[in-house]
Amino acid sequence: MIHPHGRWLRLIIGLFALAALAAVSTRSEGVAAGAGAMPWSAPTAIAVGLAQAGRPALAYTSNSAEHAVWGSNGNLFYAQRAAGGVWSSATWVAAGGEPALVVGEYDVLHLLFSNQFMGNYDIYYVYRDSAGWSLPINVSNTSGVSQQPALTRSADGKLHAAWSDNTSGDWMIYHGVWDGKFWSSHPVASARGQSSAIAGATNGRIFVGWQTQSPSNTNPQGVWAIFLTELQGQNWSMPTNISSRLDLNAMGVKLVTAADGQAHLVWVDESRRVRYAYGQGAHWSAPTTVSDDGTEARGPDLLVEGGQALHIAWDEGAVARVVSVQAGATAWPKAEVAAMQLASLRHVTLAASPRGDLSVGWVQSDPQETGVYESRRSMMFPWRLWLPMSIR
To answer: Class of the 31-377 domain?
Structure first.
């Protein structure tokens, strides 16, 4: 015979477990900013006492350890933080700047960066495994200036890179693939421009975006526009003008793909608003405004978590904001303040851990020094072990 109090206890435990399961299920589908999320932590210093610094690159490995790479005074530095721990001291990686960081199989860190060697700017590649950082490999290997690298992993695990190069006399977008020993290096068909972005989709497609000047009905000089092309097999599609409907200057594109197989892009227009669009092939959404509260947004970054939740971050001079929605959203909630500083804040970047923590990093400067910082936000329901449920 079961005691009545035992039945009530089992009922309470069962309802509690159902509520927790519903909360995590909602999170996995992608939710609005602030739903199921804890407040942002106080800023944590990754590196301080720098003369200057560029945009940092952040990434998490499968053990929820966090990794950071940043450029300062023509050199790249690296630090790491175990889950729940503190940041290590910085170590030197290589000469260069503009780091792009991706975690590969077996938690190997893959890093692209630009560097001037023997009077020529090229894109270089290094990786970090249990033995430390490898020696640099020249990726671009052209006679012109190569800069602004972007890096992604495709569905088959291969590394794909994109960057800007002016070997032809015009700025072109280049694409490269790592075969485990060598990098390929080829211009992307009909892709003229700079500031490339790249992402691999679950269906095997590779998307590359960039910015370039495009003819305009209202501006005879043309406006800066965001273009995108897709690699299917061995062929690149004709570039699509993603931002043309606005007839406004658009710059600073960031690109990810979600579980829907579509490309998701953000950029900033000439009114300093963060804009967003998604699609593939000939089917694209109309660009929507992510931030439109009278502030001047700069340098957006974009991250997809679990194939569903989109996180977008940007800075407004002394404030870093983050907004989170489901991929393909048409309405945007009010952005959260992830960091607020008296000093100048810029170069915002995002990373997400396997257990659901979200990190936003940035560079901040005051008259005395420059530093690299981050703030973190934990999810309220990260549980993966459920209580047994028995209701009678």
So the answer is: mainly beta
